[in-house]
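Exercise: predict the structure of this protein bound to heme C.
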Amino acid sequence: MKKSALLAILVLVLAVSTGVLGYLYSTETVTGQDVVVSPSVAIGDYTQKWASSAHANSASEGFRHWDDSEDGTVPANCAQCHSSTGFLDYYGLDGSEAYVVDQPAKVGTVVDCSVCHNDYVESNPVVKFPSGMEVASTDGVAACWTCHQGTEGGINGNLEKRIGEIAPDDKGETLGFVNPHYLAVGSMYLGAEANGGYQYEGKTYAGAFRHASGVETCTDCHDPHTLHLADPGYEKCQTCHAEIQGYPDQRLVRRTRLDYDGDGDVNESTYDEINGLAEQALASIVTYSKNIGGVTIGYSDNYPYWFGDVNDNGVQDEGEKAYADWTPRLMRAAFNYKFVTRSAGYIHNPVYSAQLLIDSIEDLAAGDATITLASYSRP
Ligand code: HEC
Ligand code: HEC
Ligand code: HEC
Ligand code: HEC
Ligand code: HEC
Ligand SMILES: [Ca+2]
Ligand SMILES: [Ca+2]
Ligand SMILES: [Ca+2]
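Solution:
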């Protein structure tokens, strides 16, 4: 169907649905297009699916984090991904300059229809990543890549800037944890093509994980409205993986022949291979911090994620603050650990995930001889 027609319908849907879906934020961002309504598409289904998704959940932290900000807005440097108007501003679709968000956004605009259904996104444009790399999109996934790309990765990212010339095992004032940000799945999927992980010098890294025919792109696997597995759901996987009956059976799949994590088990799932590596990476981070950092580091799923585990018991107790004794090696490994474990790396790019984790462990061991290496099989 014509894009302008779809857009027009979306305007109408948004307008009509504000009453029904009380929490839906009504926007004027898609006005200025010809309003031509085609009665042949069952928009209601799409709207309903979307309304049940995380993208429409205006109560979630991803959209409410700024509730208590002084002027009730999402700052420009966050709005690209945490608001619809911010996203349109980022690409200049509101008439402003492209590739920069000029205005803070109203809190709670969620990820509405206008973000994905506009001529620009539908033209499969090139998408810029935090590393500075640009990748041509296909199949309507430009919007997914734009928000699910993380914020700090890669060669030209914030991580490298903060490390600057500081030697691998030294401390320095500019050092600290650099968070790859959440659900950076687009960068994970693209691997070295987007350079979202910390890639060590002298190593080569896998590009995009295109998996197999029919399950290559974000929207081959994710319904763009519900965000769950696209129809027919996990049945789609069974053609090639009989073991997948439903969630979370995809974690049982093993296709690699390699013993990534070097534990001698070559029958465990790919999920377990990657998890095995992640566990060893975390253990190496802790060991290194004790021996080189001075203070033991601890990890928790909540901010500030890495804390000074002063009493060395593995949990964050009262008074244990954000970790302060960073060295470049520690920063790189902590970044990769979080990047892989928070982007379902085992399914979006198992090869890149294994490479990043193995290289992180080996780099830490180069600074701390007490870290024992298993015989990892680097893919
Ligand atoms: C390139 C896109 C992008 C940018 C820029 C971005 N974020 Fe996010 N952010 C995301 C995505 C995707 C998520 C995943 C949502 C989730 O996990 O809830 C997220 C999640 C979050 C969450 C929720 C974490 C949780 O525990 O659920 C917070 C808080 C957050 N971001 C804060 C920020 C702040 C503050 C900024 C600006 C300094 C920012 N983000 C900039 C993409 C982005
Ligand atoms: C995160 C991106 C995203 C959002 C948000 C989104 N859509 Fe979609 N929508 C898509 C993609 C991608 C397709 C194409 C699906 C495919 O090829 O299987 C699509 C397809 C459609 C179609 C089918 C028409 C066609 O061209 O195939 C309709 C109708 C539609 N969306 C309506 C909506 C409405 C209404 C909303 C808001 C309530 C919405 N969409 C929100 C990404 C999105
Ligand atoms: C404007 C930014 C933006 C765009 C575009 C976007 N997302 Fe998201 N996505 C988010 C944010 C923010 C969250 C977290 C929302 C929340 O916490 O409720 C999220 C959550 C998700 C989730 C997690 C669902 C869950 O239940 O945990 C999936 C899967 C997802 N997005 C896939 C996609 C796909 C596929 C596309 C492209 C078709 C896409 N996203 C486009 C920002 C975006
Ligand atoms: C081969 C199918 C497949 C492809 C391709 C795929 N995904 Fe996923 N994705 C999944 C599955 C399955 C899960 C659930 C993983 C789990 O929970 O173990 C998932 C999880 C996610 C999550 C939630 C992660 C979390 O930890 O909560 C996001 C966000 C997401 N995918 C976004 C994307 C984006 C963006 C793309 C394109 C760059 C993409 N996916 C490509 C199958 C796929
Ligand atoms: C057309 C066949 C086919 C379909 C359909 C398919 N896969 Fe795969 N899958 C493969 C192949 C081939 C590999 C190995 C790819 C590689 O290593 O390059 C693989 C690998 C995997 C891996 C482990 C990564 C690895 O390389 O060890 C997971 C997890 C997985 N698939 C999950 C899924 C899920 C979930 C679905 C359904 C959404 C799905 N697959 C659909 C063929 C398929
Ligand atoms: Ca702009
Ligand atoms: Ca193994
Ligand atoms: Ca403690």
